[in-house]
Target: Ketoreductase domain-containing protein
Amino acid sequence: MAQRAQQIASHLNFPSGLLAGQVAIITGSGQGIGAECARLFANEGAKVVVCDVDSAKSEAVAKSINDASPNRAISVPGDVTDPNYFPVLVKKAAEFGNGKIHIIVNNAGYTWDGVIHKMTDKQWDTILAVHNTAPFRLVREAAKYFRVKDGEPRVIINISSTSGTHGNAGQANYSLAKAGVTGLTKTIAKEWGPQFGVRANTIAFGHINTRLTQAKESGAFITTPDGQRISLGIPQSQLASRKGDDDAAAYKDIPLGRPGSATEAASAVMATCSPLFAYVNGQTIEVTGGRNI
Model:
């Protein structure tokens, strides 16, 4: 125990960054919160594996990181619902990290909303595949790089939502999936924490400014593997009903009075991965600006 505490303490001396020398896989990092995570991690000394279903966006994020700090990022684009993707992703990440992987951030995801009595099996199965099956498969594939005793930190972050911690009308599939993430996280913490010191935590976001919280009419969409186009966001009429005549009214239940930015959300992820959170394990951390307190 004392030796482990000393190893952790040694990581608190971080002249080259909070994540110096670590290798991180961040899914869904071609845009939004994931892209901000990739940039922040790289700024804190990590080598980052950028992965997104959109190869152009994945490549662009990796290039922007390498332009600032050469050889700090690689792009390994792919579809997280494809079981053949993870062996490739993990192999390339380990090669990039000289045989080591330290951090996984299971961030990839989207919504496909519908009220319970109208939701299709396809909507249900797709969202569970993206938010539950995919993180499990990635963690399982990377197990041999986390179940090690080399004195170096290992962290897994599973991204959830307040839809998972509190439920949300029109999101039975997403709410169940995001609630399930918590169980996966706690199980990782209990299985891999005692012998290997792996930390696993869930971060549940509230209202963060991303394509999932913008007006659906703005045109953001994702295409499923079978070619179906899914519109993302919140209907303009629903947003307008929240605001009424006062924009601030839309955020009256958030004590900070505003939504969070993608950078603020990513900062919470980075902090939880860092040595500053070395004794935080198996927790669900809500990043909401105070909503639901």
